[in-house]
Amino acid sequence: MTGTTIVGIDIGGTGIKGAPVDLTTGALTAERIRMLTPSPATPSAVAAVVVPLLDEIGVDGPIGVTLPGVVTGGVLRTAANIDKKWLGMDVVELFEKATGRPVAVVNDADAAGIAEMKFGAGAGRRGVVMMITLGTGIGTALFVDGALVPNTELGHLHLHHGEAEHWAADSARERDDLSWEEFGERVNHYLALIQRLFWPDLIIVGGGASKKAQKFFAQFTVDTEVVPAALQNEAGIVGAAMLAPSAAR
C-alpha cells in the first residue's frame, strides 16, 4: 500500500467488487475485480469470498467494506438483501478476523454518496443532495450542505402496495422484464415520492442501472435536477476506500 492507495470492497446482493483506489483523485488504480455473492450470503460465506478477492487485488493495508444495511457502531442492524444471520453481528470484527487487517464498514449507499460528493456529480454542491442507487435493492444517502445523514435506507418506503425497492430497483426491471421506458416510469414514481418528502436540490442516480442512464432518464418528470452518478457503479468501492484510513488509527 502507498500512502494514498487503499482497497475498497463493495458487497452487494449479487456481486462482491473490489479495487485499489487513489484517494487523491478517486480513481481506481487497477481493474476492478468482481466475484459472485455466495448463496446463501451468510457472514462466513461472504468473508470467505472477500479473502481471495483481496489476495487477487494484491494491495496490503486497511480496507473499507460496504454492506447493504444499516451499520452503527460496527454492527449491522438490517439485512434486507443478504442473509438474516447478519443481523446484530459485529461486522468490523468479522472482517478483521477474516482478513487480518484494520477494517471500516459502512452502508453501501452512504459509501457511494460519499464518493460522489467528493469526486463525482455532487462535488461542490450545497443544499440537500440525495444519492439513490438502483441495484438489487434501492439504496439512499442524504447530504445536507455536504454532511451525511447516515443510514437513511429510503428504498424501504411504501410505494405501489409494498416496499419501493421491490417495484423500482434494477432487479425489479429484470424480474418483470420491463423495457427501459417502463423502468424509467417506475423510477420516476419513486423520485416523485423522494421529492415530496425531502425537496432535494439535486438527485444523483447511481448503482448498476446508472450505466444505462440514457435509456431511462427521459421518463423523469420530477421538478428537481436529476443526474447520473459520475463514478457509476464504482462509487461504492471509492467511498469504502475513503473511509478505510479511519480503521487504522
Description:
The protein is globular and about 50 Å long. With 249 residues, it is of the alpha/beta class. The protein has helices at residues 43-57, 91-99, 108-119, 165-168, 170-175, 180-198, 213-216, 235-243, and strands at 5-11, 15-22, 27-28, 33-36, 63-67, 71-72, 75-76, 103-107, 128-134, 138-144, 147-149, 158-159, 162-163, 202-206, 225-228. α1 crosses α2 (91-99) and α3 crosses α8 (235-243). It is built from eight helices and 15 strands. The strands form four sheets. Strands 1, 2, 3, 4, 5 and 8 form a six-stranded mixed sheet that branches. It has a five-stranded mixed sheet with strand order 11-10-9-14-15, with helices on one face. The chain folds into two domains: 5-110 and 235-248, Nucleotidyltransferase, domain 5 (2-Layer Sandwich); 125-229, 2-Layer Sandwich (Nucleotidyltransferase, domain 5).
CATH level-4 homologous superfamily of the largest domain = ATPase, nucleotide binding domain
Cα distance spanning the termini = 16 Å
- The gross shape turns out to be globular
Instruction: Kindly state the percentage of residues in helix.
Output: 25-40%
Q: What is the CATH C-level name of the largest domain? A: Alpha Beta
- Discrete helix count: 8
Helix/strand order, N-terminal first: EEEEHEEEHEHEEEEEHHHEHEH
For the largest beta-sheet, the strand count, sense and barrel status come to: 6 strands, mixed
Gyration radius from CA atoms, angstroms? 17 Å
Q: Hey, roughly how much beta strand do the residues contain?
A: 25-35%
Number of domains: 2
Given helix and strand content, the structural type is alpha/beta
